[in-house]
Amino acid sequence: MNLENKKRIQKLRLILNDMLHNNIIMNWSNLNKCIMILSLACSMHLLWLFWKLFILVTPSLWQWVDIDLLKFQIYLNIIGFLLLLFLILPCWFLQNKPWAEAFLPYFIINIFIAIIIRDGYLVGLFSPATVSAFICISALGLILFERRIVYFSLTLACLIFTILSYLTLIHVLPYSPLFSPELLTPSLNIFWVSSMIYFILPIVLASLFLFDILLFQWRHRESLIKTLSQTDPLTTLFNRRYFNEQLEKIQAVTHNYVVVLLDLDHFKTINDQYGHSVGDNALKQVALCLKAHLPEQDIVARFGGEEFIFSLTNITLEQAHAIAEHCRLAISHLRIPVLNNQFISLTASLGLAMSTPTQCIDSVIDSADQALYIAKQKGRNQVQIFQN
Is the pTM value of this prediction over 0.70? Predict the structure, then answer.
């Protein structure tokens, strides 16, 4: 495989990945969802046409169907297919119209359900094909559209189904008028079974495919929401709430941990003198610096404003002090770009406290905060350990 083909495949993968992760079907407008439903209905009409045309050119199968009704239904399917294609146009061109978003879904869904009822009556209201189609389409509708839209259509559909079922049971209407009466006997007929499979499989597979996409996108969105709820959007570090949650888990296992609170010195001056964009960039650089210089198993988070916090587990106070000092020096070596290719440097003050078996998490953090206060009082740009 040459380099050009590899690039094309990579580009295709990126496009598909973007479609799956970012083009969330649940976030589509109602009219876009209607276009998808109409496309599905067009596909169903094509399936019907292929089946009927196959029977029409196979005289040996005529004994199992009402051939005159089948010929008439072919014309209806062609007209219905063209009508469905035509209905896609208003859904496409009226997407920015609030009244179309509110009204057209009712109209489109009712047309789609009318197709299901009509075709279901032709092959038998209680046939596996009709039951499968009704269940799959109902579930898909409830997932895609608002309840008030779907429940209205489903209630109407169930009422029509009930009336038709009753009329067939009392022999006012024929059951499964498209098939000959011989197919309704208890013995299985290969043609009938094959026809049911032909109608069931595409609908079920299409529904499963859409359900799988929706489930995949739902899981991705849930994962994204979870990440956003745990992460500081500017620095991409964990936020304070998630840090506390993880520290609670650590404390449940061991009381041997150190909390380090870090504050950037005179950070307000940077914002006032160079602007918040430079300040934001400085915070990002500090976050990357802390990630690079702290052990992977330990948690670092943005505590708020220009303050950061991290925990060190299974470590002595002297070792924790050495790591904190290493972080302080690394931050002092950062060069933050400002206007005219100039750079500014940062310093940080750090306070750390070792947990004790009798202390709660808030108490340990408060002790680290007191140590940080002492570091600032003594001139900043240093590490101080909390002393009982």
Answer: no
